[in-house]
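Structure (tokenized):
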């Protein structure tokens, strides 16, 4: 016997989250293009992979809605910024955005609790863990950028480090 269909309130909130995740992807892709434009290919690589991961997040909600017999409703994605003052500024904005996403996930958890929707509650546990990891990654890079300050050599070294990040599709994760 399958789970009963998702309630309307939960469904609407999950569809809204697909848009949030796709906007995250758009924002990081825009940051990737900006890093390319200032010659920081390693930073651009890191953001490009982040953009791909955000599409995976959107697809996780998308697949979930369909698996519960719900209807996916895609909506307009807003335009992201195109420029930042510095690599530090871009990562501070990234952290701020992830804190917003963490709040969105927490709000979804609250709805799942109120609606007594155990299946969605379980799905959201993965996102809670993912948000902890993402905020920690951003904080680590922000700390490095603060230590580096204006040093061109430090930025060059960090660019080399961020160039080593590789994309792992979600389905291949443990
Ligand atoms: Fe960046 O975790 Fe999804 O949005």
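Design, position by position:
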């Amino acid at each position: 016997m399958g789970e009963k269909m998702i309630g309307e309130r939960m469904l609407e909130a999950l569809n809204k989250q697909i848009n949030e995740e796709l906007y995250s992807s758009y924002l990081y892709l825009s940051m990737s293009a900006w890093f390319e434009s200032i010659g920081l290919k390693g930073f651009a690589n890191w953001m490009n992979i982040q953009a791909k991961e955000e599409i995976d997040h959107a697809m996780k909600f998308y697949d979930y809605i369909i698996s519960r017999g719900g209807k996916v409703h895609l909506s307009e994605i807003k335009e992201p910024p195109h420029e930042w003052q510095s690599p530090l500024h871009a990562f501070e904005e990234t952290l701020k955005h992830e804190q917003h996403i963490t709040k969105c996930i927490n709000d979804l958890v609250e709805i799942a609790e109120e609606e007594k929707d155990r299946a969605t509650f379980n799905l959201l546990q993965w996102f809670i863990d993912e948000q902890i990891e993402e905020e920690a990654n951003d904080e680590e890079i922000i700390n490095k950028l603060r230590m580096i300050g204006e040093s061109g050599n430090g930025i060059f070294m960090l660019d080399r480090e961020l160039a080593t990040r590789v994309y792992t599709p979600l389905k291949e994760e443990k």
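Reviewer-requested clarification: The chain is about 75% helix and 0% strand. Helices lie at 8-37, 41-67, 87-114, 118-148, 152-162.
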